[in-house]
User: What shape does this take?
Amino acid sequence: MTDYHSTSVVDPKIPLSDMSPLELFLLTQFFQSDLEAEGLFLYAEQSIDHMPTVLVGALRQAYADSLAFESQILPAVRLWLDEVSDADADSETDFDLDAHLNTYPYEVILQDIVRRSPTLSYLTVEVAHTCTKMRPDGFGGSATLIHAEGIEFQSTSGLLEMAISALKLQDCPAAG
Assistant: This one.
């Protein structure tokens, strides 16, 4: 059996003062984290958890504590909380915002942090795709640049496709 991994790193570290309680709660669900002097270091040793299991009461509290922050994620979290309104505060459930967002929730959160931050002008998310058995679909990577105005993504396969297309155009004889 082949195991696929997508190790990831968010850079630079994020000052705790730049995050709302909800953002801190969710980012530490999607990623592993270490609190360092410069801020929170986010990473994933295996892969980013796109649907973490969360304690409903803790999520409700983080949401309530974050209403004063300008945030794109708040409406989506509110809709999700409405869907689980009958859930006990001590219950755990899979946190899935796919139906409410058209991108990864962590990208939206990171962009909000950059927009409000007095010190960060961007964040990057670098991902390395690997697997435990040699397979052509198990390798590669991607880089995402998140800044106040946008989220830019490039995969290694996309970069190679562009380079190969450019090479093929150079090899074509000029129309005469």
User: Anything to note?
Assistant: Residues 4-171 form one domain. The chain has a mean pLDDT of 91.
